[in-house]
Amino acid sequence: MIKVAPSILSADFANMSLDVKTVEEAGADMLHIDVMDGHFVPNITIGAPVVKSLRKVTDLVFDVHLMIDNPEQYIKDFALAGVQIITVHAEASKHLHRLLQMIRNEGVKTGLALNPATPISVLEHLLDDLDMVLIMSVNPGFGGQKFIPAIYDKISLTRKYLSEKNRHIPIQVDGGIGLDNIKKVCDCGAEIIVSGSAIFNSDSIKETIWLMKKADEVE
What are the binding positions for substrate in this chain (predicted)? Predict the structure, then answer.
C-alpha cells in the first residue's frame, strides 16, 4: 500500500498543531516537514524549535526535508527535536557521504533529495548510506506547483537502477501530486507520496488520504 506523507507547507501555520492532528487521525503514515532557509530555496518556513513543539502533539513519523544551505550545521538540532527521517539535498553539500553518516550517527534514517534537473547518477556511491530517495517533481521552494511530466521517466529510471543494484530503498516523490496523477506516479515506482495542497485544500482530508493510499490498487 502507498504511504502518504502530508506536507505541512500547505497547512495553516496559525493552527498547525490542529492540522497535524487532523491528518494523523485521517490515516497519514508520516508528516513531511519542509524546512527552508531563503537561500537554498526562495522561501522561509520553520526550524527545529517548531518541530520540537509539534513532536509533543503527535506520534506520526517526522520526515524532515532540509532545503537549506550548510545542512551539516543543523543535523543534531533536528535529531534532538525528535525526528525519524532527515532528507538532505544532493545539491546542498560537497561531502554527501559525510553528511549522511552524520545523520545515521544521530540514530536517524537518511534520505537524499534530487532536484528535477539532478541526474540519478549521484546515487551511485551512496547506496549503502541511504534509507530513502526523494525525487522532486517540482522545483523546490513553494507549495501548489504543477507536476513536471518528465519526472515520470526519472522515477522509473530510479526504480530500475535500484532494482539492478538489488537495493530495496523506498522512493518518495514530492510536488504537484493529487488524485489525478498519483496512480501514474506509483506505477512508475514511487512508494511514498508527499502531498500538500491536494490534501489540506480538499473537502475531506480523510477521504483524500484514503483514496491516495488505495490508488495503486485501482485498475
Answer: 7, 65, 141-144, 174-176, 196-197
